[in-house]
Design brief:
Helix content: over 70%
Radius of gyration: 40 Å
Number of helices: 3
Structural class: mainly alpha
Number of domains: 2
Strand content: under 5%
Order of helices and strands: HHH
């Protein structure tokens, strides 16, 4: 231990201190670069969000424009399914009645 303490002169401590300051300056510069890149990413995300919102508004407008027609088509489909099921049930019951199952 005593040998190590004698080896650390004031000049070597000053060199170590200056080296650490240089390295921290490099770290600070890298952080500035990362912050600048993050600002660019945030800007890109804002643009993407605006484009996405515009796209959804366009799709919503198209749906709203054809809303009544879509509802009418779904209503017609619903009626067709109900009539089809009722016809199927009536056919099965009629066949059962003709064959004397009831």
């Amino acid at each position: 231990m005593a040998v190590m303490r004698e080896a650390w002169t004031d000049e070597r401590l000053d060199d170590l201190s200056q080296g650490m300051h240089r390295q921290f300056d490099q770290v600070h510069a890298e952080f500035r670069d990362v912050r600048a890149e993050l600002r660019d990413v945030r800007s890109d995300l804002r643009e993407l969000r605006a484009e996405t919102e515009a796209g959804f508004k366009a799709v919503n407008a198209r749906i709203d424009a054809h809303y009544d027609a879509l509802n009418a088509r779904f209503d017609a489909l619903n009626r067709a399914l109900v009539v089809g099921c009722a016809s199927l049930v009536a056919g099965v019951l009629g066949a059962a009645a003709v064959n004397g199952l009831f």
